Amino acid sequence: MSDSSTKTPLLSIRDLSIALPRGGDRSHAVRGISVDIHAGEIVCIVGESGSGKSMSANAIMGLLPPYLQPEAGEILLEGRDLLKLPEDTLREMRGRDMAMIFQEPLSALNPLLTVGEQIAEVMRVHGAYPGPAREQRVLELLDFVGLPDPATLRNAWPFRLSGGQRQRVMIAMALALEPRLLIADEPTTALDVTTQAQILALIARIQREKGMGVMFVTHDFGVVAEIADRVAVMEKGVLVEQGTAEQVLNRPQHPYTRRLIAAVPHQRAQHGDSAALRGKPILEVEKLAKTYASGGGLFRKKRAVRAVDGVSFSVRRGQTLGIVGESGSGKSTIGKCLLKLTGIDGGRMLFEGEDIAPLSETEFRPKRAKIQMIFQDPFASLNPRQTVGRILCDGPMAAGVPRAKAEARARELLQLVELDVSAFDRYPGEFSGGQRQRVGIARALAMEPQLIVADESVSALDVSVQAQVLKLLREVQHRLQIALIFITHDLRVAAQICDELLVMHRGQVVEQGPPGQIFDAPRHEYTRALIAAMPGREWDPSQAVLA
């Protein structure tokens, strides 16, 4: 990073405040924040959900909803106060002077237009690159962001692309008119570790080559360690700390920053209950296979994809088995097979010594209570029309438990997952993401299972909430001696909670062992590539001065 202290900032936010419509205890979404971003540097805005970081980014772009408008302060882009400009002028500046990469590219891209049409539309709206030059520019951009065969891919629909490819298309759209300021709002949150590394490297390369100023909004301190020049930390709408990445990551000053860094998972080998690890397996999977038919159409043949290809493993009571790998590696398919949410094409699944693979739904139903799942998305997996009490009681009551007993058990479980018993009569929409995930854990426990499959159950959570949920899972598991299969693409999280790891690649287990061995002496080249791709792998949060 070049010395920018004496240069005029590209972007200067001065005493920005955004009022909430209802006020109350917290009257502002953003209160009096000031941040500078210079050309040629990356500034990471860090904080938990609700801290105001995305709100600040949307204020710069003029994308706040009508009921949320800045009430004080300035946002100066190359000396022009964006808050005083009319909408027509802001519309002209979006794309040309400043551009934004959104968190979820599938919802940000138009499903009815090909990716080439959407990139070209940015130029058409601004009257740039007329005629054949526009098509040529589309191909240049697709090639610049590292997408294969641009001439073919420009005609693809967004749903046909992977998450990483869609994010590259979003970046190409943002770069179409070479803006001076690029805002990236959590652009790698939903991506697996290798795709995340590629997108981070791409943004850093673009920033270097184009000399852009980049505001990178994230809650991931590994990402901060990987790309940030400077860091600004937000809590409840207030900027509590800012400085160079080295200062904030290794010598944080504010108590909130210290708490966030203390909650970051790091590569720490787990030492499980040795008695449990010596016990008889509760689940034994032998040569499990699952094939999906992929593609196909009027002029194309369907092809078979081996999602799970001869996978074998076992798990004991009180043990946590982690399954890690990239998207498409087959790890979530294994979870669906174990719950019999999808059929299998071969192999055996021995639960308490009995092969559950050939059982019909009627035969398996009595055993379903013993194998439960915690889903990835706590927003989509809870019925918004049902109270938490009903969500927790419906399963046991369907299994024949009397209502009074089910309700008493539900209230006990709410306390076990550290929620107030008043949550029993409330609806999921009244809770935060972390609280909803606690409800999901309580729902799984309500059936008194012996095995729980947790599928990316903390990937959508802030680092501090993630730490709380991981701690809760460990405590509940050890107290009740439940076997846990923990599916994740986050190697740091896996090291935090798992006794044993399976590393999957293209449907096969390429390596298996305790976390310490996997991280310290990986044997397979794919495992080494996964570890090398971890953002901020050279930064050790446990070495930060937190006192």
Automatic annotation (TrEMBL):
<protein>
    <submittedName>
        <fullName>Dipeptide ABC transporter ATP-binding protein</fullName>
    </submittedName>
</protein>
<dbReference type="InterPro" id="IPR013563">
    <property type="entry name" value="Oligopep_ABC_C"/>
</dbReference>
<dbReference type="InterPro" id="IPR003593">
    <property type="entry name" value="AAA+_ATPase"/>
</dbReference>
<keyword id="KW-0813">Transport</keyword>
<feature type="domain" description="ABC transporter">
    <location>
        <begin position="283"/>
        <end position="531"/>
    </location>
</feature>
<dbReference type="InterPro" id="IPR027417">
    <property type="entry name" value="P-loop_NTPase"/>
</dbReference>
<feature type="domain" description="ABC transporter">
    <location>
        <begin position="11"/>
        <end position="261"/>
    </location>
</feature>
<dbReference type="GO" id="GO:0005524">
    <property type="term" value="F:ATP binding"/>
</dbReference>
<dbReference type="InterPro" id="IPR050388">
    <property type="entry name" value="ABC_Ni/Peptide_Import"/>
</dbReference>
<keyword id="KW-0067">ATP-binding</keyword>
<comment type="similarity">
    <text>Belongs to the ABC transporter superfamily.</text>
</comment>
<dbReference type="GO" id="GO:0016887">
    <property type="term" value="F:ATP hydrolysis activity"/>
</dbReference>
<keyword id="KW-0472">Membrane</keyword>
<keyword id="KW-1003">Cell membrane</keyword>
<dbReference type="GO" id="GO:0005886">
    <property type="term" value="C:plasma membrane"/>
</dbReference>
<dbReference type="GO" id="GO:0015833">
    <property type="term" value="P:peptide transport"/>
</dbReference>
<dbReference type="InterPro" id="IPR003439">
    <property type="entry name" value="ABC_transporter-like_ATP-bd"/>
</dbReference>
<dbReference type="GO" id="GO:0055085">
    <property type="term" value="P:transmembrane transport"/>
</dbReference>
<dbReference type="Pfam" id="PF00005">
    <property type="entry name" value="ABC_tran"/>
</dbReference>
<keyword id="KW-0547">Nucleotide-binding</keyword>
<dbReference type="InterPro" id="IPR017871">
    <property type="entry name" value="ABC_transporter-like_CS"/>
</dbReference>
<dbReference type="Pfam" id="PF08352">
    <property type="entry name" value="oligo_HPY"/>
</dbReference>
